[in-house]
């Protein structure tokens, strides 16, 4: 999955908006004002000058976060995020598209599950 595919999948989630509160170049994806993902060009020398890797931060269950980091080299503790609750996925092509979609779905649902029932219902009806 590349950054364009990731963007399309993220924005396809019901009631998702994009903003750049952290500055130009860092897209923040929110559902009903609550962040569930970020997408930006990577840091710390990942990729090449002509083909830099994009990084996506996703919310994650703490136990699953550690498991994913053990399984995939391209999953690291959340860059500039709470390392216990967020993972950074380096979009370098090493993680299957379906697995990235599953991680996005989980991040989205972790945020939705913390919302009041009325807000949850309005989102879940659109899934």
Structure, explained:
With 127 residues, this protein is of the alpha+beta class. The chain has four helices and six strands, in the order H-E-E-E-E-H-E-E-H-H. Strands 1-2-3-4-6-5 form a six-stranded antiparallel sheet, with helices on one face. A hairpin with an 8-residue loop joins strand 5 and strand 6. It is globular.
Radius of gyration: 14 Å
- Overall form: globular
What's the SSE pattern? Answer: HEEEEHEEHH
Q: How much beta, percentage-wise?
A: 25-35%
Largest β sheet strand count, sense and barrel closure: 6 strands, antiparallel
Low-confidence stretches are none
The percent of residues in helical segments reads 25-40%
Query: By helix and strand content, what is the structural category?
Result: alpha+beta
Count up the helices. 4
Write down how many β-strands occur, each being a DSSP E stretch of 2 or more residues.
Answer: 6
Distance between the termini: 22 Å
Average residue pLDDT: 93
Strand order of the largest sheet: 1-2-3-4-6-5
Describe how the helices and strands are arranged:
Blueprint lengths: L2 H9 L4 E4 L6 E6 L2 E8 L12 E6 L2 H10 L3 E3 L8 E6 L5 H17 L3 H8 L3
Antiparallel strand pairs: 1-2, 2-3, 3-4, 4-6, 5-6
Task: Record keyword descriptors for this entry.
127 residues; alpha+beta; six-stranded antiparallel β-sheet; 4 helices; 6 strands; globular
Summary, kept brief:
The protein has helices spanning 3-11, 62-71, 97-113, 117-124, and strands at 16-19, 26-31, 34-41, 54-59, 75-77, 86-91. Strand 1 and strand 2 form a beta hairpin. The mean pLDDT is 93.
């Amino acid at each position: 999955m590349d950054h364009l595919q990731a963007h399309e999948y993220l924005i396809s989630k019901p009631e998702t908006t994009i903003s750049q509160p952290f500055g130009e170049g860092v897209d923040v994806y929110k559902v009903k004002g609550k962040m569930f993902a970020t997408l930006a060009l990577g840091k710390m020398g990942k990729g090449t000058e002509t083909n830099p890797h994009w990084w996506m931060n996703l919310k994650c269950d703490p136990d699953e976060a550690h498991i994913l980091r053990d399984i995939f080299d391209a999953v690291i503790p959340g860059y500039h995020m709470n390392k216990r609750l967020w993972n950074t996925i380096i979009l370098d092509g090493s993680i299957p598209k379906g697995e990235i979609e599953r991680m996005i779905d989980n991040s989205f649902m972790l945020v939705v599950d913390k919302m009041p029932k009325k807000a949850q219902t309005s989102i879940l009806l659109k899934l």
